[in-house]
From TrEMBL:
Name of the protein in its database record: CTP synthase N-terminal domain-containing protein
GO-annotated biological processes: CTP biosynthetic process; pyrimidine nucleobase biosynthetic process
InterPro entries cross-referenced by the UniProt entry: CTP_synthase, CTP_synthase_N, P-loop_NTPase
Single annotated GO MF: CTP synthase activity
Signal peptide, first to last residue: none
A Pfam family of this chain: CTP_synth_N
Native source organism of the sequence: Taxus chinensis
Phylogenetic lineage: Eukaryota, Viridiplantae, Streptophyta, Embryophyta, Tracheophyta
Length: 85
């Protein structure tokens, strides 16, 4: 988890869950789990489209989870992209 996540929680006065933190490992594990369940019907799993679709699906799903105690989706979804090369 990036240290900025805690700053976002304090600044916005919200409580985030583990789903709000997307990692490469979580995405790859979800794709591997789908492949093992047979969701891809025996097709070769590839970065495009399977991994990229999983990232988009995760963002869309998490963006709909209320974080401020209210019902319904959030007004704004902030995504921080980063990494070390």
């Amino acid at each position: 988890v990036d240290l900025d996540l805690g700053n976002y929680e304090r600044f916005l006065d919200v409580t985030l869950t583990r789903d709000n933190n997307i990692t490469t490992g979580k995405i790859y594990q979800s794709v591997i789990d789908k492949e093992r369940r047979g969701d891809y019907l025996g097709k070769t799993v590839q970065v495009i489209p399977h991994i990229t679709d999983a990232i988009q699906d995760w963002i869309k799903r998490v963006a709909k989870i209320p974080v401020d105690g209210k019902e319904g989706p959030a007004d704004v979804c902030v995504i921080e992209l980063g990494g070390t090369v």
